[in-house]
């Protein structure tokens, strides 16, 4: 399912004054190529993947499937829909819903598709106190029959794909039958796909952050599910550090999975998204330059501020854009300081970029910005 080839990249190292110089060493890369189309998605992340974050990510990747934060069905039905669901992001965007009432989820799904969302996703993986008090999210791993009913209700209500994002299991569940039962119920309800975060969730004793890091990853378990269900869409989430790691993990699960979903890596080192369309979708156009990215985001910030918003709503998602680049510390300080002022204008973003502009292009050419570790 793959072949390897050697690719030569030009490296850049730093001079004493911080400028870049070319380095004649050769970088040997392993490039993974599969015989099937692989989906690429950016995970739903509470407090992170809001509409400004999605706009930023879409500037860099035109093809990735972007997810909203989880939105509770009651909020969609009774809340400010334009604020919750309004989205200027082009391309494929999925609405992730939380809840455990079939009728409410069906109504929320109907409302969501009216706003143009191309997929409805049911959250069966979030372990936060908030979802536990409402008996949804990861709690639903214990109730596969109910998950099937929820999926069936949403499928009847909308004509876009309905998917499920889940864990391997919760607490003391055996991940063998727990995942099998959940997947079977979702598919019996009509689910079009299953995204699996390849960890258990512990509903007691671990915080949401610890639940993203402490339970061990088990990609092989997801691979076994795919091997037993070769005609079902099964995507992988959890612990994927960058695009190369994602492709490698998909190929090493025992059965080639159908999609990779990056979460924190994409948010904390977003420059890697510049390469996503080429690596996952064979797009031939070159990645956007940083001049183009900053120009587009500054214009977007101008529009947001003119409509009554604040610069920080936009720039808080851009803090990690230049991880590892000389001048990145000043970039972060500016966006975390000056950009949060109530009267901050988008020129702050433009000026912050000028301080490291000369370093950004060499770093991108060396591949530095496409790699995240640890």
Give a written overview of the molecule.
- The chain is built from 17 helices and 13 strands.
- With 374 residues, it is of the alpha/beta class.
- An eight-stranded parallel β-barrel has the order 3-4-6-7-8-10-12-13, surrounded by six helices.
- Helix 4 packs parallel to helix 6 and helix 15 runs antiparallel to helix 16.
- The N terminus is likely disordered.
Rounded to an integer in angstroms, the radius of gyration calculated over CA atoms is: 21 Å
Quote the beta fraction. Answer: 5-15%
Strand order of the largest sheet: 3-4-6-7-8-10-12-13
Can you give the mean pLDDT?
87
Number of domains: 2
The count of helical stretches stands at 17
Task: Report how far the terminal alpha carbons are from each other.
Answer: 28 Å
The helix-and-strand class reads alpha/beta
What is the fourth-level CATH superfamily of the largest domain? Aldolase class I
- The sequence of SSEs as H and E is EEEHEEHHEHEHHEEHEEHHEHEHHHHHHH
Uncertain regions spanning at least 5 consecutive residues = 1-34
Structure summary, number of beta strands:
13
**Biggest sheet architecture:** 8 strands, parallel, barrel
Estimated helix fraction: 40-55%
Under the CATH scheme, which class of the largest domain? Alpha Beta
Tertiary shape: globular
